[in-house]
Amino acid sequence: MKWLSWTSPGKLRSKGIIGMNRRNIRYIGRYNNRRLFPLVDDKLKTKLLAQQHGITSPALIGTVTTQFGVKHILDMLTGHAGFVIKPAKGSGGKGILVIEQSKDGAYIKPSGAVLNLTDIERHVSNILSGLYSLGGSPDVAMIESLIHFDESLMAYTYEGVPDIRVIIFKGYPVMAMMRLSTAASDGKANLHQGAVGVGLDIATGTALRGVQFDRPCYAHPDTGHDLASLVVPDWKTLLLLAAGCYEMTGLGYLGTDMVLDRRHGPMLLELNARPGLAIQMTNGEGLRPRLDMIEAQPEGQSPEARVAFAQQHFARHSELGLPADMPTSTA
Amino acid sequence: MSRLPFYLIVGVLMLAGIAMSVQRHVQFEIPWVPGEQRKVWEIEALVNFNAQDGPVMVDMALPSHQAGFRVLTENTASSGYGLAFKADDFGRRAEWSIRDAAGSQQLYYSVQMLVSPDSQTPDLTPPPPLVDIVWERPYDTAANHIVERAWSRSADNYTFARELMLDMGGERQGENARLLLTQYDLVPLVVRLLNHAGVNAREVSGLLLEDGRRRQSLTQWIQVFDESEEKWALFNPLSGEQGKPDNLLLWEAGGQAVLEVAGGTNSRVNFSMMTHSQPASAAVRNHISEDTLLNFSIHSLPLEEQALFQTILLIPIGALMVVFLRVLVGFKTSGTFMPVLIALAFIQTTLMTGLIGFLLVVAVGLVIRNYLSYLNLLLVARVSAVIITVIAIISIFSVVAYKLGLNAGLTITFFPMIILAWTIERMSILWEEEGPREVLIQGGGSLVTAVLAYLAMNNPWVRHITFNFLGVQLILMALILLLGNYTGYRLLELRRFQPITDEEKTS
């Protein structure tokens, strides 16, 4: 009886959960200058900025800005076996076309579907006319090199690429989770569509607990792989990259979406100036105590010092490793 | 970062709002709760004629206070014409004059009549002595026959008049009556016959009031005087029924011509009318009309603008409702203030008709929009196509509803079509991207918000307060500012985050 289960404001407050209103006024409104929003709402700007600041992100093959340019897309694509086409101002993963392999004018998607050059051109043209951008405003198509996803995490995901969301507050990593796409979420990493969210320990990058549809979950529903064994490799590098986004953008309350590349290690995929609150569900913990602690810290710390602070203070133990302690059913 | 200025502004707004409201309550004795609602009729008379290149005099009868109605205000619009109001024993008249006019002329007269059941007809002067009626042959015999027949079957002037009218029209119409009707019109003929029999009677003109009617003309009625009662009584000359219908406004009650034009041809007058309700107190105050600079209120505006403001001043209530539901409850709506506009439309259509109409239009619109998405159009063109689709749907529904005799269906045209088109567009995108479930959540949220906003805005007390106390707007502003500062949980978040606290208990 999900509908009938309600909690009280007092319980939420004692858990340190922050709600939408508090997030909007107290954090986004106070720490995120409106002027800086375009830096993260436009992925192309984010990418160029990341390159300037030495933050690893998928290599940019090229951009298409005019319908005229669509005809010359072939010149851009030759020599790249796999690539990703995405709208610069898209949101929620809309309009992203992944091509794993191209051979003799045939372009193959991860699902196995084969497209030809005309399909690619039409997709780029749709992006330019604003089909996927917020409010339908004209957009720019970005072509990036394909991410070669780290094999060690492949078993935890169904179809899509799992990404790691780290909340960065005043440059400190606050909380992290990994989003694993499932059959229910149709290969998308959106939690409300049924992707599994896995809370990650800030100290080590190991899985804390898994949640699907807001309910605890211990193994990936499609691959059956146990979530307890999930460890993000290269965790410290990832945190340093994410923490560096504070200097890069100037935004105080930031959601960073990272991926792990086989060859280049952690990479910045995109930034979000209005990160959602579901991360509290996947971690089983409220953001409030951590945010309060960071607000009390002095300004001007280096990213290394901030990451070290977070790893020291926000360390936690996994709830997945000890099945005996776990509630049998809460649904 | 001090919040002091914020709370200062909220406090000042709150205090100013309360002070303004109390001042209006005390000084103008406006009650806090709506009293009796009074109906006000707004009637416009349009005089048309062709001027003949010379001086023109137009003389038109005007309505006066009478049983059931009181004159509130009157206005005229007649550029270049001199205007004088006259009143004599037979009623009030307006006289327009101009030295030189040519071509088609239009003169406007509008009057606001307050429906007041206790209003009385002013003392009517006794009729002038009758003059002898002379009939030509062979009409004299016919007239005598009819009068004698009716006279024998009546007891007094009123019953005589009724019998006479029944004999002249309807099933009992006889040979004599038909003969007389070849020479005379019915109404003047009945008056003539009554006078012939020594009964004082006159022809008067009245307007049957019906909301929203245009290009209406006056209807003819007959007043009969009874010496023993010293009173005039009104008869419907076609049915012989005695008494004034509630919706009949006597425009000319003195037996005179309604319109006389000297220097013009082809003159005619027609009427349009509409009704609205306002609190009795406001209507009466309007009548007293004490216009001072200090009396800063919507009521100093002309009636038509007042009616407009009545709606405008309700919008903040709808906005407050939206802020409340989004910030405190956590409703998702499609388009932030779309529900307020839908609620405004509901006020015109009534709730059930509005809901059904809205769902029908959006559902059909979604199906058609779904097809449009296959055509792969640019956004602006697509939304424009949806707008035309919405207009087409509304037209078709109106016609179908009218053919089926569902007049309520016609009010569907009150929906803001551009807003509907955007709603359909947004819902459709939502459907494609997030699936039907999200459409139901947001569409349902919007509808529930619209219904709640409608219930708040349509509440008689809310309407009374917002319309009569402008200070309430400041209080609403302060409340909305306060809500904008709320950092606590939303009601629906108590459910969303419930699993976290739930585990606390079990582990």
UniProtKB/TrEMBL annotation, chain A:
Protein name according to UniProt: Alpha-L-glutamate ligase-like protein
One Gene Ontology cellular component annotation held by this UniProt entry: cytoplasm
Superkingdom of the source species: Bacteria
A Pfam entry, by short name: ATPgrasp_ST
Organism: Vreelandella rituensis
Cell membrane as UniProt keyword: no
Record-level Gene Ontology MF annotations: ATP binding; metal ion binding; ribosomal S6-glutamic acid ligase activity
Lineage: Bacteria, Pseudomonadati, Pseudomonadota, Gammaproteobacteria, Oceanospirillales
Domain ATP-grasp span(s) in chain numbering: 47-302
GO biological process: one example: SOS response
Gene3D superfamilies, A to Z: ATP-grasp fold, B domain
This protein's UniProt keywords: ATP-binding, Ligase, Manganese, Nucleotide-binding
InterPro entries membership: ATP-grasp, RimK-rel_E_lig, RimK-rel_E_lig_ATP-grasp
Keyword Transport: no
TrEMBL record, chain B:
Secretion signal, residue range per the UniProt entry: none
Pfam families: 7TM_transglut, Transglut_i_TM
Keywords: Membrane, Transmembrane, Transmembrane helix
Keyword match Membrane: yes
Domain Inactive transglutaminase fused to 7 transmembrane helices: residue ranges: 24-183
UniProt cross-references to InterPro entries, sorted A to Z: 7TM_transglut, Papain-like_cys_pep_sf, Transglut_i_TM
Superkingdom: Bacteria
Keyword field contains Membrane: yes
Domain 7 transmembrane helices usually fused to an inactive transglutaminase, chain residue ranges per copy: 257-500
Bilayer-spanning residue ranges: 307-329, 341-368, 374-397, 404-424, 439-457, 469-489
SUPFAM superfamilies given in the database record: Cysteine proteinases
Protein name per UniProt: Gonadoliberin III
Source organism of the structure: Vreelandella rituensis
